[in-house]
Structure formats: structure tokens, C-alpha cells
Amino acid sequence: MELMLLFITVGFLMVMQIAIPFIVKRTVVFGVTIPVDEVRNKQLLRYKKLYAISTFMISSLALGLYFIWTTIWTPAESHLIFGGFFLPFVILFISLSLYFYFHMKVTALKQQNQWFKDRRQVKVSELNIRSKDEMLPWIAYLIPMVITAGLIVFTLVNYSGFPDQIPTHWGPDGKPDAFTDKTVLTVLTLPLVLLSMNAMFLGINEMTRNSGIKLSAGNVKASRVRQLRLRKYTSWLLFFISILISMLFTFLQFTTLYENSISDLLIITMPLAFSALVLMGTVLLAVKVGKKDSDFDLEIIEEGSGDVINADEDRYWKGGLIYFNPDDPSIFVEKRFGVGWTLNFAKPLGYIILIVPLLVIVIITLI
Questions:
Q1: Dihedral angle at the C-alpha atoms of 108, 111, 112, 113, nearest 10 degrees?
Q2: Rounded distance, CA 331 to CA 339, Å?
Q3: What are the tens digits of pLDDT across the range 240-287?
Q4: CA 80 to chain CA centroid, nearest Å
């Protein structure tokens, strides 16, 4: 059962990594901005296919080797769990390495062909577009906080029932592998960490709401719908993950209180099920946002000609992954490779939203 869940999770991750070049904005290829009339460039399409094939073959080889290792050599349970925990990171490392390789190839192709030379670059915005924004309101994110508050009350009411040794860390098998003496603070550590994470999700949602909505000069209609969909479904995904984390942490707290009443299978399955559901939600987000490109070819015909093209912002993207633009008021911007949002590292407020909750978590854990 655990092996099946692992393969499902890794399979979802592998499919997601393979699909990324085909679901991100088509005017950004491996983190490099290209003109809208070059999205069907044969060399760029070839790079995407090579990335997908290479990622599939190498990831499948890694998955196959893991399967052979588990069936022929029959490793110890601890080694088996560690290998399964490490496998998704292998898939991510493979895809990231291939990304950087093709990022350099596309950058060289862009410089060679001088796609942006002697063409007027513009930025497009609409004054009334925010009235169409369907992101979840901040009050929705109070729901997981209410769940966490209930968990805090439950913990205090049942304080005497907790064991003398409180888990502080859980291994890849879902079982606790580090403990500390019971005090009010140690018993409340998990709920307080959860509350900090809930607050971080709320902050990310609100900063994303206040970020700019960037439209493409070459395909205004399609990019408008894409941006609105991205904002709407990312908001829902953040809310979904916040709820899932609240449920997972509540389960872990219950395993501490009722340590002899919950089966080992359930303890192992819950974290894997959490990972699988998060991956499925991410895939759904990618499908909902990416399928808008079905209208893209019509947009190219209607608006892609002429000397006016979308602004080239490659200088603000380090390696196509890290965004650093002091002139952009947005705290979060759409990722260039992947689904969702990334931080504008030139804005200190973004660091506060992400780092302060993490510092609170570290302080609570250390105390």
C-alpha cells in the first residue's frame, strides 16, 4: 500500500515536471522571454520536446532502479522509507538540471536571432481588470485558523492525557523519532506551528491579491483570462493546502494523545496521501490555467504582427527563476517555470511575510 502511494505521488510529480514547458506562458520558454510571433519556432518546440523526453526517460530510470532495489535486494524498512522519501527530490533535481541546460540554449538562440532588436516594447494594463478578480477573500483563510484554535483548546483540555515524552520530529515513515519532556509549551508546539503556517498562507494570498496583473501585448485577451484564472485557482489551492495541513497536524496531535489507538499503516499513509492531494491540486491548477492557450493561436494572428511586442524583462530574472525588480511594486509575480507565484526578492515586505512565520516556528521549536 505504501509503495503504491509512493509510486502514485512520484508519478504525479514526474508528469507535472514533464508538462511544465507546455503549460506556462508560451511567450516564456525555459525562463526566457520570446516575441509572440516566435512561439511556434521549430527550434523552441524541439527544445520543449527534448526536455519532456529526457525528463521522462531519466526519471523513469530512477523510478525503475528504485523498484528493482526494493524487490530484489529487499532492503531494511528504514532504508526503504528513506529511499522513497529521497526519490521525489531526485526527480526534481533531474528536471531542474535539464531546465538550466535548455535555459542556456534558448538564451543563446534569442541572442543569435536578435528577436527584440528594433521593436518597440510595451507594457499593457487595464484599469478595470481588478473588478473581475475572483480570488478568495481574506476571511476564508480564517477557517483553517478556527480549526487550529479548536486544536489548541482540545490540547489544553486533554493536557493530562498526553504522554510524558512529546514527539518533536517525525521520520519519513510518519513515526516520531525525537522527543522532549511534556510541558504546556511542548504540547502546544504543533498547534502553534500550524497557526504560524496558517498566517503565512493568509499573508501570501493578500500580497498576491495586491500584486500587478501583467497582460501580454501580443495576446491581450488570452493573457487577461489566464491571469484571472491563475489568481483565482492559486487562491483556492493555497486555501486547500492550508486546510490539508491543518488536518494533517491535527492527526499528528491525535497520534500523540492516542498513541496506541492508531495503526502504523494509517500513520504512514496520511503524509503520503497529503503529498498526493497537494500534487493533484497543483496539476488541476496547471490544467485550468494552461488550457486557455487553446485561444492563443487566434490571438497571434489578430495581434501578433507589427513592431510592437511585449516588454522583455529577462534582466530582472536571474536564471529565469529568481525575480529581482525594485521598480515593480508587486510582492509576488507569476513563475516563469512552474505553476503559481514566486517572490519579488527586491521587496523587503515579501521577506517579512515568508521569514517571520518561519522564525516563529523555529523559535517555538527551539524553546
A1: 120
A2: 17
A3: 999 999 998 998 888 888 877 777 677 777 777 787 788 788 777 877
A4: 26
